[in-house]
Structure formats: C-alpha cells, structure tokens
Design goal:
The complex is a heterodimer. Chain A is of the alpha+beta class. Chain A has helices at residues 91-99, 181-190, 208-217, 220-225, 244-257, 272-283, 294-308, 352-367, 373-376, 441-456, 458-465; strands at residues 4-8, 18-24, 31-32, 37-42, 47-51, 56-61, 68-70, 74-79, 262-270, 314-316, 321-323, 329-335, 338-340, 343-344, 381-384, 404-408, 412-418, 421-435. In chain A, the strands form four sheets. In chain A, strands 9, 12, 13, 14, 15, 16, 17 and 18 form an eight-stranded mixed β-sheet that branches. A four-stranded antiparallel β-sheet of chain A has the order 1-8-6-3, with helices on one face. In chain A, strand 12 and strand 13 form a beta hairpin. The longest helix of chain A is centred in the last third of the chain and has 16 residues, at 352-367. Chain B has two domains: 26-334, 3-Layer(aba) Sandwich (Rossmann fold); 340-374, no CATH class. In chain B, 43% of the residues lie in helices and 9% in strands. Chain B contains 13 helices and nine strands. Chain B has helices at 40-65, 79-88, 102-107, 113-120, 129-132, 143-157, 181-192, 223-227, 239-254, 284-291, 295-305, 311-334, 353-367; strands spanning 26-27, 33-34, 94-96, 169-174, 197-203, 206-207, 210-211, 231-235, 260-265. Chain B has a five-stranded parallel β-sheet with strand order 3-4-5-9-8, sandwiched between helices. A two-stranded antiparallel sheet of chain B has the order 1-2. The chains are: A alpha+beta, B alpha/beta. Chain A binds chain B through residues 7-8, 10-14, 35, 45-51, 53, 115-117, 119-120, 122-125, 135-138, 142, 145-146, 148-149, 176, and chain B through 58-59, 62, 64-71, 120-122, 271, 274-277, 279-280, 337, 340, 353-354, 357, 361, 364-366, 368-372. Chain A: Residues 126-176 are annotated as: Disordered. Chain A: Residues 178-215 form the Peripheral subunit-binding (PSBD) domain. Chain A: InterPro entries: 2-oxoA_DH_lipoyl-BS, 2-oxoacid_DH_actylTfrase, 2-oxoacid_DH_E2_comp, Biotin_lipoyl, CAT-like_dom_sf, E3-bd_dom_sf, PSBD, Single_hybrid_motif.
C-alpha cells in the first residue's frame, strides 16, 4: 500500500455536500500524530475539528483557509512513512487527482449514483475506490433494467414503472396480484384465486367487485381470458365524466384559487331599511310588473361603492393593473348545467329599473340554459347570492381576471341592537373575497363597509354619494 | 439561574466530591442509606472502566470526523452515570438503552465495536439483546421506556420478582425525553402496575440545544411523585453515588416494591451528536464550570489520596485504553460493507413473495453492470 495518503473531506453531518476550511492547524512538512487535530471546517451544521486519520508528515495542503470545498475533495496529503526516504515529487498531486471522486456527493442508491459494486457510500464521502465513474452496463442493446427501478428524480409522466396492464396469458399467473387487504380477505373467504383475475382498479389492482364478479362468473380462468369489467347490480359508485360546465368551473376555480391570493372579509348588516325600500318600490305603479328582490339592491350597492373605490373593479395583468371605468356585473347563477356567471354589461350606467330588468332577463336566460357565451365573458365584478340556498356566508372564489366578488347571505329576522334597543331586524351577512395583489385589507374593508352602509340606509347614502 | 448549574443543596446524593473526597454515606428522605463500600481492586476497576469508556468514545468521534462513521453520539462527561449504573446491574437485570449508552454497553460485556457497526451503517447493531441483557439502541426518543415497562410487567407476570435474586429492569433516557408522551405513559404504567423498573434519567442539561429550563419547572426527579413512585437525584458525575443509588433502586424493584426514577445530574461535555455544534447555544464558562466536576478526575484524586493506586497503575490504564482504541479503529476500518442484496433479509420472519420478487429484480439489476461477478 502506498505510503502517501490523501484525505478527502468527508460528509461530516449526514447529507452535507460542502464545508469551508476555517483554519489549518498543521502546516506542510509538519510531523503529525494519529487523531491530532489538523483543520477546522465549518459546515452548514457545525464548526468542527477534523483529527488526522494517519500519523506521518504533511506533504500537501490542497486548499487555503477560507475555501469552500466539496465533500469528497482532497484536502490534505500525508506521507505515512516519512523516514523511508524521498517521495517522488508529483506523487501527492497525482494521488489527489486520482482519488477525487467525480460523483462523490451523489446519494447512494439513486439512479446515477456510483455503481452498486462501489457501494462504500454508507459513510464518509461516497466511493472510496479511485474509480468513481459509473460502470457501463453490459451490452448496448440490453434492455435497460434501470427502468425497472424507481426513478426518484424524474417523475414518470405516463405509465407506472412496471405496467400492471392486464396481460392475460403466460407469465401472468405467477405475479403477485395487487389487491387491498380487505379484498384479499374477501377473495380468501369466497375461495377466489386472485392470481387468475384481471384487476379493474388503479394500477390494475383487483377490486372487491372483481372478486365478486369472479365468484359469480365461475372459474378464474374464464375471467382472465375475458378482461371485461363486470358491473354487478347495485353499483355503489357512479363515474361522471368531467366535461362542459363542470370542467370549465373546475378549471376556472383552480386557476383562480392558485393564482390570486384570496382574502375574504365579512360584514353583518341590518337590511331592514332596504327591505322597506323594496316594499315601497313594489308599491309604485311603474314597478308593478318588475321582479324586485333584495339582490337588486345589493347589486346597486356594489355598483355605487365601486364608483367610490374604482380599484376593486380591476384586473391583475402581470406587470400592470388594469382599472376599468365600466362594471360588467356578474351574477353567479345555479343552473341545471351547473354554475354559470353571466354578466350585465356596463351595469354602472343603468338606472335601477334598467338594472332590475337586466337582472331578471339574465337569470331567466340562464335558467333556461340559453346564456350566450358573450354574456359569460368580460365580467369585472361579481355577486354570488348564497342566501338563496339558506346559508349565511361563504368565502367565494374570484372568477379569473376579477379582483372582487361579494357573497350575499340569507336575510334573517334577528335580534339586533337598533337605536339602543334590541329589536327584531332583517339582518344579513356580506362576505367579500378580493385579490390581495391589488386590493389591500384597508381598501377591501372600506369597500365592503360602503356596500353595507348603502344597505343599512339606502336613501341617505344615495343622497350622500350622488 | 445559570443553565446547567448546580442543583440546590441537599437534593443531590453524592459520595465523592469533585475534589475527590469520600463521603461516608448519605441518608435519603425515605431513610434509605446510600453507601458504596468497595475493595481497592473494585475502586481501581471503576477507574479503569471510566478511562477506557472515554477513550473508546473519543476514538469513535474521531472516526466520524474522518468519514468512517455516519454519526456518533458521544458520552463525554457522562461516563460516571453510565459506568456507575451499568456496574450496579446484576447479570439477570435487563437494560433498555438510548443511542448514547456506550458505557453501559461496555459494562454489560458487549464488544464495543458493536455500536460502531450501527453508526457506520453496515449492520443493525449486532449484539444479542437476550444474551447480554441489553436491548438494541433505540433512536426514537423515549420509546425504549415503554419497551422497558412492558418487559418489566412481563417479569412480574413471570413471577420473577419478590426475592433477593429477582429480576429488575432499567430504562435509560435523557432530560429531553421526559417531555415525551412515551416516557410519561411509561411512568404511569410502571407506577400503576408496580413494575420492577428503574427509570434512569441522565439529565445532561440539554435536549440537543434546548436547555433543561424549557423541559421542566421542577427538578425532574420530583416528577416521580406525581406518578406514585419515589424519585431521587444523584450526582451523575460521581460513579460511587450513581452505583449506590442505582443498586438500591434495582434491589427495590427486584423485591417487587415497584419503580424508581433516578435523575443522574450530569453534563454533556461534547456535542449532542457529531452533527451538532454546542458552541452555538451554550457559553464557555458553563462548560468550564463542569470541567471542574469531571467524573474521572475526582476518582483519580481519591485513588491517589488514599494511595489505592500509583503512577504505574494510571500509566498502565492509559496504555490499555490506547491499545483498545487503536484495536477498535483497526476493526472499524476493516468492517465489511454488507452486500446490498442483504437489505432484503429479515424484512419478514417467514419471507414474502413481494420481497422475494424485489430481491430477484435487484440481483438482476446488479448483474446488468459490466464487470459484475453475477
């Protein structure tokens, strides 16, 4: 064995890849003892002294103080038999070059790590042998068995590693069948041999129904030969293809929920005066045939408040914010096809009467399933009337491209402090979600407060604001 | 109060002061008299244990720094707590260690190479727990106290308590572990079932970086009162007192009188493990104060003062320690790496078709490399 030894920086703390040379405690030419501290190294975990692995004479120090060194790189060379005469001058540096493992920091066992035979990676700094190169596989055309091993780095996009696809025929029966323990128990109880079955579950696993079908259908061999998923009577699960409105809703919700940072604020409002205004409007001869609901007044409140706080009616466009001076007011509508959000174009310019008519038309069209696509695009601010479903509040998700949405809860008769006394009042809850990239908590709160102020006292507010 | 400082007077059983002065006996609050009457040969033996255990530990730490062990949990400073309690065990007594009980392991007669295989990652420890009455190292903090409690309950069910030569069980853990649910559950079960168990807590003042003051508002040994069994604090740097207190608690247990909590008050002079840097969370003056209470120095002072040992003896012990540590080093470096395929061994006691298949695939995979012997 060579008397020249080169010490590589070990992994001092379970998974480190580098360390900084803080201070050399020995110098070239110095005679050192076994376990004599030679260097202070600081890693991400600790500053430690490394003791000499061999006694001898320091021949070379590979890195000056202050250098960050990769785990596995040579740091010191020691002549372990300095009394035996001169060394060849270049021996140290040659040893250093040879010893440095090129893949020393690679985790053991991972694909791309040093070959299994060089498995001295349990401790230290990976392979201790000079050759840390990956050994070639036998034969160029050999099927790559590596594919059979899990690839933890690159996620396999398509099929799992060993395709469990039903492959009836030879070789199949000695496979261990994939099945959950309760299914195994069922098969055992019923005397069904799992190995003869073709699974219809995830990854080709055998489900409870497969076992039941095999029992009803007779021999396992027949089942294997005809890999048809039998659906017995009394199916307990229903599979609904994701398409149409459901698909669009899902895409929109995911796009919005994971793009815009949502914040929701809440406000409880005494709407008694609004309800009274509604009654008075209904009594007006001109409004006799008009469908008029609390939602209309909430819409009005939202439109008026948006004029006072135009920033809520905006779109985040990456490097700029688009603030609109028109409001296309979206009304979330539950239809048989699912949730749709048609909008009333430029609703801020409409009179209350026009708004009422537009809302009535919009809802009727939506319910009949005839909303044209143009009505569903370009919304800027939305109301969702969760109160019609009997709930008090929600935390709505913004339609993509919008920065505020108001949820209107059920209007309930509630004990309420009114003018210093507890009275039964018509109270509702408003919830407003907004895009925090555009709207700060203060603006969001002010806006919702103004919506609430209108609903608390529509007449006074109207006079004050317009 | 300084972290890791001295406990209040009168709460610490001590038979050998840091200056090496012998205290004849200490009477506990329950009237138990603690004394350690050793022959000169036995005193020298304890000293030898302490020195060798420290030296082997230092060698293991160096081996880790040299890349030969993945990690090492040093016992530096806790030698007396481990040798004192380890020597107090009788052959039939069962011990449940943490991963730091190298001193107890040594006293049980286990080859000190064994834990190094574990920390080198080439085996799972290697000793037979039944043969040596010393369970495998437990890495999970506090889990072994429940194992010990179950074992102790079994000892009772086997009818092996109640006599002078009955069996007792000892569970080792640290101050940090006392905050674990497992340890508190063990206290409850052992207390309720009056199990023959000694809870041996080495309070080394730090749970990695967390000081004792964040583990407890009262001295740890007093916790036992709430669980219905006695607790006692002993100077964990005093090998004589640790021996006496542990022996008494083990005898109490073997006679069927139930568990005891021993708090061995000590200090971890080194890092929690080789991954840790204690200078980041404790001050040098605190470490210096504890250096004055070193467990080995006081025994040496005592041996010299009483002329129980001479310079030749100390030199001979140092020589033996050096020899054994070098021997340990040589053997560690020669430890064979296990064949990767052995990872499939011992997964199930009776084998498994899935694991068999995986082993087969793995062998094929290995054989696919050029130059492979397969």
């Amino acid at each position: 064995m060579s008397r020249m030894k080169t010490f590589n920086l070990p992994d001092l703390g379970e998974g480190l890849v580098e360390g900084e040379i803080i201070k050399w405690l020995v110098e070239v030419g110095q005679e050192i003892e076994l376990n004599q501290p030679i260097v202070e190294v600081e890693t991400a975990k600790a500053a430690v002294e490394i003791p000499a692995k061999w006694a001898g004479k320091v021949v070379e120090i590979h890195h000056p103080e202050g250098t960050t060194v990769e785990v596995g790189s040579p740091i010191i060379s020691i002549d372990t038999d300095p009394t035996a005469g001169d060394l060849e001058p270049s021996a140290a540096s040659l040893a250093a070059v040879d010893v440095a493992p090129t893949e020393g920091a690679v985790e053991p066992g991972l694909i791309g790590s040093p070959a299994p035979k060089a498995n001295a990676v349990l401790v230290g700094y990976g392979p201790k042998t000079p050759s840390a190169k990956r050994r070639p596989r036998k034969g160029d055309t050999a099927p790559a068995p590596a594919a059979a091993a899990p690839a933890p780095v690159v996620p396999a996009p398509a099929a799992p590693v060993e395709p469990p696809a039903p492959a009836p025929g030879a070789g199949r029966t000695d496979q261990v069948a994939l099945a959950k323990p309760p299914v195994r128990k069922l098969a055992k109880d019923l005397g069904v041999d799992l190995r003869g079955l073709v699974g219809s579950g995830p990854l080709g696993s055998i489900t409870r129904d497969d076992v039941l079908a095999a029992q009803n259908g007779g021999g396992g061999g027949a089942v294997a030969a005809a890999p048809v998923v039998a659906i017995p009577a009394g199916e307990r699960e229903q599979r609904i293809p994701v398409k149409g409105v459901r698909k669009l809703t899902a895409e929109n919700m995911v796009a919005s929920a994971f793009t815009a940072p949502h914040v929701t604020v809440f406000l409880t409002v005494d709407m008694t005066r609004t309800m009274q205004v509604i009654d008075r409007l209904r009594a007006l001869p001109d409004w006799r045939d008009v469908r008029i609901s609390p939602l209309l007044l909430v819409a009005k409140a939202i439109l008026l408040a948006a004029k006072r706080h135009p920033m809520v009616n905006s779109t985040w466009a990456g490097d700029e914010i688009i603030v609109k001076d028109y409001v296309n007011l979206g009304i979330a509508a539950a239809t048989e096809r699912g949730l749709i959000v048609p909008n009333i174009k430029d609703a801020g310019r409409l009179s209350l009467r026009e708004l009422a008519d537009a809302m009535t038309a919009l809802v009727q069209t939506a319910k009949s399933g005839k909303t044209p696509p143009a009505d569903m695009s370009g919304g800027t601010l939305t109301i969702t009337n969760v109160g019609v479903f009997g709930v008090d509040a929600g935390t709505p998700i913004l339609p993509p491209g919008e920065s505020a949405i108001v949820a209107f809860g059920a209007v309930r008769e509630t004990p309420w402090v009114h003018e210093g006394q507890i009275q039964i009042r018509q109270v509702t809850q408003l919830a407003m979600s907004f895009d925090h990239r555009i709207i700060d908590g203060e603006l969001g709160a002010k806006y919702l407060r103004d919506v609430g102020a209108f609903l608390s006292d529509p007449e006074a507010t109207l006079l004050a604001w317009t | 109060m300084a972290k890791g400082g001295s406990p209040p007077d009168g709460e610490l059983v001590q038979l050998l002061t840091p200056e090496g002065e012998r205290i004849e006996s200490v009477t506990g609050s329950d009237g138990t008299v603690y004394r350690a009457d050793f022959t000169d040969e036995e005193y020298r033996g304890l000293y030898r244990d302490l020195v060798i255990v420290r030296k082997l530990d230092a060698e293991a730490t160096a081996l880790q720094r040299q890349g030969e062990l993945g990690i090492w949990a040093s016992l530096l400073g806790q030698e007396a707590a481990q040798v004192g309690s380890g020597r107090a065990l009788r052959p039939q007594d069962m011990a449940f260690p943490t991963y730091r009980e190298h001193g107890v392991l040594y006293c049980r007669g286990i080859d000190p190479i064994m834990p190094l295989g574990l920390f080198r990652g080439v085996d799972q420890g290697g000793w037979d727990p039944n043969e040596f009455k010393f369970n495998m190292y437990t890495i999970v903090i506090g889990a072994q106290t429940l194992h010990a409690t179950g074992y102790a309950m079994g000892v009772t069910m086997d009818g092996k308590t109640g006599t002078d030569d009955g069996e007792a069980v000892i569970a080792y853990f640290g101050d940090g572990a006392t905050s674990q649910g497992d340890v508190n559950e063990a206290f409850i079960w052992a207390g309720v079932f009056n199990s023959p168990l000694v809870f041996f807590c080495q309070n080394n003042q730090y749970a990695i970086s967390e000081p004792l003051e964040r583990q407890t508002r009262i001295p740890l040994y007093r916790r036992a009162g709430g669980f219905g069994f006695p607790g006692i604090r002993v100077d964990g740097n005093d090998v004589l007192a640790t021996y006496a207190v542990t022996r008494a608690a083990l005898d109490h247990a073997r006679l069927g009188q139930g568990p005891t909590l021993i708090e061995a008050y000590t200090y971890r002079m080194g890092a929690h493990t080789t991954n840790d840097d204690p200078t980041r969370y404790r001050i040098a003056s605190e470490v210096e104060a504890w250096q004055a209470k070193d467990p080995i120095k006081r025994v040496r002072a005592f041996l010299e003062r009483e002329q129980i040992a001479d310079a030749a003896f100390f030199a001979e012990v140092d020589e033996q320690a050096k020899r054994e540590s070098l021997h340990l080093r040589e053997r560690v470096l020669e430890m064979p790496d296990p064949a990767p395929v052995t990872m499939f061994d011992n997964v199930y006691p009776n084998g498994s078709p899935l694991v068999d298949k995986e082993r087969e695939r793995f062998v094929e995979y290995q054989a696919s490399f050029e130059g492979s012997a397969h």
